[in-house]
Amino acid sequence: YSTTPMLKIAKANKHGIVAFNVHSFDSIFWVLEAAAELKSPVILQTTVGTIQSLGAKNIVEVAQAAAQHYQVPTGLHLDHCTDFEIIKDAIRAGYTSVMIDASMHPFAENVARTQRVVELATSLGVNVEAELGKVGGVEDDIIVDEADAEKADPEECRQFVAATGVPTLAPAIGTAHGIYKGKPEIDFERIAEIAKMVDVPLVLHGGSAVPEEDVRRCVALGMAKVNVSTELKNIYSEAIREHFAHDPDSLDPRAYLQKAKEAAKEMVKTKIRIVGSENTV
Ligand code: 13P
Ligand code: ZN
Ligand code: NA
């Protein structure tokens, strides 16, 4: 139950780890059951909105119990957090990694805010992720217009990692949160340049709707953590909707949640196979 070692191993062995956004307690079990069946490490991540909905301590306790039950290396990560106090609370509750997202601020301010979190987290063995550039699209409360999306500059990445000591970096490279209207224009050359400049595992945000071969290329170039949110929640929500379309009077949560579980597990397995972490534990 930790994030740092699995990212290090993934980077060294050039496979990826999928970080799935979970939005309910049930989905924690679905993700870990699927990961266990494939003998793959996995990261569970929640946004601040999900902490507000379920409670940080509850999420930690359920994640720990499920990781113990399924015997699968599990990280619990706080996704896209802009608030230092919430980060502190999540670490205190038992999250194993946190993202400080100060990418909306100018470079120097992003450095200062990230430094503060690195100082707090590192002494506690908690991994930190920060973002450079701006990932477009919608992720809970964080909304970035496509027009304002901005790719990360490789030289700035070097300076940023050197200045903050951040152990994991999420550079914007052309993906967006959510499902794209067209195909994402991923800047593979930029990823390669950034990977030359910094020695830390990189993170691919906006993993939903990225074609399989593009995800593989990103992983091969050093993107060790691949975030998937929208596709997972959509597929199991659709399974529930379909259940009610066929059986509008259904009142048995076990019946419709079973459909959700089957759909979620299949999606989780597909993504794990793409990043190549199957059979690595
Ligand atoms: P998607 O919703 O596109 O999968 O993005 C996930 C993400 O980056 C979470 O931080
Ligand atoms: Zn993201
Ligand atoms: Na996406």
UniProtKB/TrEMBL annotation:
Entries under PANTHER family matching the protein: D-TAGATOSE-1,6-BISPHOSPHATE ALDOLASE, D-TAGATOSE-1,6-BISPHOSPHATE ALDOLASE SUBUNIT GATY-RELATED
Chain residues that bind Zn(2+) 1: 80, 177, 205
Protein name listed in UniProt: Class II fructose-bisphosphate aldolase
Cofactor details (free text): Binds 2 Zn(2+) ions per subunit. One is catalytic and the other provides a structural contribution.
Keywords: Metal-binding, Zinc
Organism: Salipaludibacillus agaradhaerens (Bacillus agaradhaerens)
Residues annotated for dihydroxyacetone phosphate binding in this entry: 178, 206-208, 227-230
Necessary cofactors: Zn(2+)
